[in-house]
């Protein structure tokens, strides 16, 4: 089956049989049929939540604007990038109130962000195209239905950058309130390829990925203890969650909370790693 036919086949299956779609997607990425009736690994746990609708309870926390209220309640002020404004659509954005540097985003999905380093040279038409495309995109697909329940908005927030370089993304995978691993995403936006590397809570490398994407070690952030405390505090409210954090100028910032990493399939991870992330293995 060629790529075009395969895409059409999966679209038909997905639109009509979400459970079959997830089973086939899991099989394609992990080489085995998942057990969603009695899930063991994290991708199976998430898959079951997606199929039975349990995932919908996380919609308010996946909303990048609404979740800020909960973050402030749980952590106190000071752990979020400064919020400059929230609007219903791009045409409502008040650029006159924005600083010279800012990030313009949508609250309901991934990507589709406008990174502005100099407001005077911002291409408004290009920015509108990016944001409008994101606003018209259904990021939830047929299984991540919690995204369907997020009222779409555009917001502008503080841009965390030093000399045009975006900070490393630290993704804290948590299970039952415990940090299982920290996935570091390095070199975002450089050549279209992101380097990945996992560490444990002692900043020792972990062999969890099917293929190691990182060629060099990632330095332990100076505020790592604070980052662990932030992730652990948030994780107490969920069975599983990925807490995405940034370390910027020795300060911890919460990026977002994720409940379906890579659509819940987590294709980069080995079977043993997925079992470990769901508390089924104590040592890898």
Q: Secondary-structure element order, as H and E?
A: HHHHHEEEHEEEEEHEEH
CATH architecture of the largest domain: 2-Layer Sandwich
**Major β-sheet strand ordering:** 8-7-6-5-9-10
The dominant shape is globular
For the biggest sheet, the summary is:
6 strands, antiparallel
Oligomer state equals single chain
Give the class from helix and strand content and strand pairing: alpha+beta
Fold topology:
Elements (H helix, E strand, L loop, with lengths): L2 H14 L1 H13 L11 H11 L6 H4 L4 H9 L7 E5 L14 E5 L7 E3 L7 H12 L18 E4 L11 E7 L2 E9 L8 E5 L5 E2 L17 H12 L4 E9 L2 E8 L12 H7 L7
Antiparallel strand pairs: 1-4, 2-3, 2-4, 5-6, 5-9, 6-7, 7-8, 9-10
Helix pairs in contact: 1-2, 2-3
Give a written overview of the molecule.
The protein has 284 residues and is an alpha+beta fold. It has three domains: 54 residues, no CATH class; 76 residues, no CATH class; 113 residues, D-amino Acid Aminotransferase, Chain A, domain 1, CATH 3.30.470. The protein has eight helices and ten strands. It is globular, with a radius of gyration of 19 Å. The mean pLDDT is 91.
Summarize the structure in short:
The protein is 29% helix and 20% strand. The chain has eight helices and ten strands.
